[in-house]
Amino acid sequence: MHTYPYWRNPNVLWKKSSILAAKPFTVVECGKPQKGASESDHFHTAIAPVLTLSQLFGVFPLQSVLNRAPESMTFRTVSVTCVVSAISIFGGYTMLLLSLVRLGRDLNAINVAEPIFFGICATSLVIFWQLAKQWQAIAVAWSRTERTFVRYKSNLKGKSVLYAALLLMALAEHLLFVANNVSYMLKEIDYCNWTIPDPAKFFFAKTFTTTFHTFAYSLPIAIYNEYIIISMTFVWNFIDLFIMLISIGIAARFDQLRDRVFDRINSWTPTTEHFWEQIRIQYVALCELAASINRAISKLVYVSYANDTYYIVLQIMNANQEQPSVVNKVYFWYSFAYLLLRTFLMFWYSAQVEHTSHGMCRLIQLVPTAEYCDELQRLQMYTKCGASLNGMGVFSVSRRIVLTLTGTIITYELVLLSYREGSSDQHSTTISSKNRSPSSAMDSLNNALRPVFVVYQLMGTFPVGGILQRSSVGLRFRWLSVQFLFS
């Protein structure tokens, strides 16, 4: 057990300090509270509708989620939500095994995406099940920490609208996925000149080939498969969205604390040691909260980053394949764009925890020397460490990790390009090396790396015009260009 000096022990400070010992939903004033702040700014209240919706798909089997008092939340193994979650977990792992049985020795880098998808989603459901057991303690601790912040409006409930927007985009992606499958089926029917007496049976049999490769066709099994697909798709999106909402909730409180210090410094009001004691205690409480939450969700962070990186690489590998129809093209590029958007937002918001926790350290440098005191020095010591999320201790989430993952993706593309070029040279019998155009190698490189460069330009990097052209001759750098303005 760790022992701390009196001024560093957060538990002693919590019990004996007049600041954190105030009644719930009150604060020791350091400024005028903003109008419009309400109990809906509590994180557990703002996120409750999101968790309730997720329970329809087997995620977060917790009772009394909508109750405003976090102490009333309970986890019961024998409950409707747990039964729904168990059905989804069983279905996900069953689909994983059936897909491995169907593929057998034909497993390759392309079709392995199916078992990986079901494996990741089913495992995520198990992690959410474990998290639901701890959520009451987390929500209670979060509520107690927030009681010194709730009178300062943070608009957490308004920021959760982001979840609704991304969820609608995920729904649109799933509908396009169904339309994409129907398009392939219609082409197959037209090419083979088939007569389909039972369209529903034909659709389910083709859509759930993995299941009906092992079992005989049955409508109840088909309906159960449809629910599992929708549940797994929801979980696949919900992992990123949940991490984003958690990060927004933590970062918002660090921003509030920083804004209070910034307003005090800009008002030219002399700061006292008591003021810095308040800020330090609240900052330590936030760091402790962030650390406890990180211990609970670090597995989800790890799974989320690995999942997004894998599917971005897979989509880049499929980017050069020709799509037979307009529906197929719309589905592929929409799903790719949505994946990039969701991944970028998850990276950005999860990195905000680390960024906002260090914001106080930069702000302390503006404090006049005459007002420097022991409490300010202690606060500065804590702010240099800050707080951040991490993936099971393997990596810490910061803005630098975006560049690291992008570099990994580019390395993969270069290796893939080298493999394709080598394979093409071995099997080519019609074109000799002497007759090849000097720019053909550059064109191949440009075509292979085009999706990566587009992602770079969306983030303000590599401002080269004409990157979407097939030929490398059209590549130009211009000062007056959209790409340069983004950069």
What does this structure look like?
There is one protein chain. With about 475 residues, the chain is mainly alpha-helical. About 65% of the residues lie in helices and about 0% in strands. The longest helix is centred in the middle third of the chain and has 48 residues, at about 220-265. It is globular and about 85 Å long.
Overall pLDDT confidence: 79
- Beta-strand segment tally: 0
Helix content: 55-70%
Structural class: mainly alpha
Q: Rg from C-alpha positions?
A: 27 Å
The biggest beta sheet reads: none
- Series of secondary-structure elements, N-terminal to C-terminal: HHHHHHHHHHHHHHHH
Q: Shape, please?
A: globular
Terminal CA distance: 50 Å
- Beta fraction: under 5%
Would you identify the regions where 5 or more consecutive residues have pLDDT less than 50?
A: 1-38, 429-442
SS element count, helices: 16
